[in-house]
Design goal:
The protein has about 160 residues and is α+β, with helices and mostly antiparallel strands. The protein has helices at about 1-5, 45-50, 70-85; strands spanning about 10-15, 15-20, 25-35, 40, 60-65, 65, 100-105, 115-120, 125-130, 135-140, 145-150. It folds into two domains: about 1-85, Alpha-Beta Plaits, CATH 3.30.70.940; about 100-155, SH3 type barrels. The strands form four sheets. A five-stranded antiparallel sheet has the order 10-9-8-7-11, with no helix packed on it. It has a two-stranded antiparallel sheet with strand order 1-4. The protein is globular, with a radius of gyration of 20 Å. The mean pLDDT is about 80.
Length: about 160
Amino acid sequence: MDKLLKQQGIDSYCPVREVVNQWADRKKEVSLPLFSSYVFVRVDLFEQAKVLYVLGVMGYVYFMGRPAVVKDNIIEQIKYNLDHYKDLEMVSLEGIAIGDVVKIKAGVLTNQTGKVVEIKGKHVLMVFDSINCALVTRVLVQNLTIQNSNQNHEN
């Protein structure tokens, strides 16, 4: 996508990280977008419409009814972090908060439901009390779905 935008003369940036994929017979380093399905563009009002005609562009991310603006210092910080921290990975917490009841989508405890007791980086510490004792485990955030959000019950 970034390449297609640049071919149209649009100033764009797609932050990528290098990841080593392991197959049975070999390892290969591949580039993956840091933010899946997102490319940053610097455009004026005319170019805003032009971007939407580039193959693969779905639209803009909106904030308060307008295309969201990401300040230059944030883009520079992303570039700096990618240059200095090779294991950088973006993990969305998707609204997960302490007290939420979540279900595990993948892994050893697939389909088990538990309560979030702590969030540390991209891992969530959960407690399962459905077996008459507390079983505590760390689960990757991307392996969870929210069943009952604690945030919905706050006044």
